[in-house]
Fold this sequence. Notes:
Layout: E1 2-6, H1 9-22, E2 28-32, E3 46-47, H2 56-64, E4 77-81, H3 85-96, E5 100-106, H4 119-129, E6 132-135, H5 138-146, E7 152-155, E8 174-178, H6 188-201, E9 206-210, H7 215-218, E10 228-230, H8 235-244, E11 247-250, H9 254-261, E12 266-268, E13 283-285, H10 292-300, H11 316-331
Parallel strand pairs: 1-2, 1-4, 2-3, 4-5, 5-6, 6-7, 8-9, 8-11, 9-10, 11-12, 12-13
Helix pairs in contact: 1-11, 2-3, 3-4
Amino acid sequence: MILLCYGTRPEWIKIKPLIKAFKGKIPFKVLFTGQHEHIGNFYHDYSLKIEEGSNRLDSIIAATAKIDDEVFHNVEYVLVQGDTASTFAMALSAFNRRIKVIHLEAGLRTYDLENPYPEEGYRQMISRISSINFCATENNRTNLLLENCKGKIFIVGNTVLDNLVGVETEYGNEVLVTMHRRENHAIMDKWFMELNKIASEYTDLAFTIPIHPNPNVKKHQHLLSRFNIIDPLPYDEMIQRIAKCRMIISDSGGIQEESSFLNKKVIVCRKYTERQESVGAHSIMCKAPSKLSGVFGRVVSNYKINKASPYGDGNASQLILQRILGVKNEIK
């Protein structure tokens, strides 16, 4: 029995293909950890209630420490995805019960604990206690080997791409923007002012931002006077926007993967990215707001691309199924 865990919408999106692949092949149950409370009516067998305290990250980890033993009944493996607080907390809860940990999207690294914070710390700690590591790329595998991680390592691609098979790409006149990362909160006003300047200059393009609900982002939305500001989109609608836009500006991690599969260039507004494989082709780094105008000018004049995604071919969930069945047979 495998316990599949997710706590945020991006985690659900990457777990969902596994649920489809596992049905009838591997017994499983699903836990929603509740890190993001309002993410839609997604499937789960169990859910956690996070009681707010003085520190949100502590509250998330404390909630997992109170899980009813029924959730772990007959569980051989706990599968966690990514690098959030609830991902680390569930891996730790499994480790405390001597249950094997499967880490999906293992081996991502910047080796800077502040960028991204707290995710870089969490994913490094998860790697120390994982029995099985599913990596998207060879670079991810190399990171784990250099760190002398003891778990089995498999390169399978990223499951997010399994959702995109068959989606057709066009190049419209929309520039899609998403901004939310914690390390950008202190300078979000500067990013927004530079974004608005670009929108004022390139009047032939339509600039759209699904505004993130975090108050540290929303409080600056008045600076985007030349933007179409919309509410966060359901996943399928967001993918269609990515597939049809001209290009993307974002500080997201997942969008770097999705845009590479859909052949869209994305300007990455961060000091560092753990997804180095697409840098220079699909992903163009912009490390400071003051650099954004120049980077945008270069990218918008050469926005088309036709190159395979380095994060897989949309078949990761089937590869993972085969690897897990193989490991279980080895143990028998």
